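thought: fold this chain, then report.
action: predict
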Amino acid sequence: MSRAAAIARARRYLEDGRFQADLARRVAIRSESQDPRGAPELRRYLAEELQPALERLAFRCEVLANPVAGAGPLLCAERREPGAALTVLTYGHGDVIRGQEEQWRAGLAPWELHREGQRLYGRGTADNKGQHTINLAALGAVLAGWGSHIINAKGAKRAPGIPIVDPLGWDRRGDHPPPRPMGVPPHWDKPAPAPPTEAQEAPGR
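observation:
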């Protein structure tokens, strides 16, 4: 599968209505982090929406309690393949601010996706549910064509609250270092590896 074919597959997802349908379903989940009553919806967004989408891409997923008191859960996901040349990290948040229904103009509502021309309106369409939907679609388009032995991937979604440890810095199998403060990258004192070649990025083309 060529790069152009992967892009074409992703474009079809965008243009045939599937992107808008997936985003509308996610926008409808009232994952408000500023309202304590939104706690069940925060977990539902991770466990019932993002986790199944990741598992369809062969990710191993786990929803974890946030170590910050009163903060929402974390979704950690990992996809490993023997012989993969790259590891891709992704991070995002699953919460949104209050709906603020009274501040939306006539015809729009925070929990309903509404299209006007080339614009989509709804709480979370730009931050961060739109990004989740685009990233998952792009990864799915690549994997659908190239199959296995392409990439390893790790991801974390918080909903909400900044965790005090990096969930990507540990693994229960013990083959990763212990938790480290959020924002401190792994191996920060070591030189970065050489960038992969084109053949490494997409073996078997």
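thought: worth noting. The first helix runs from residue 3 to 15.
final: tokens above.
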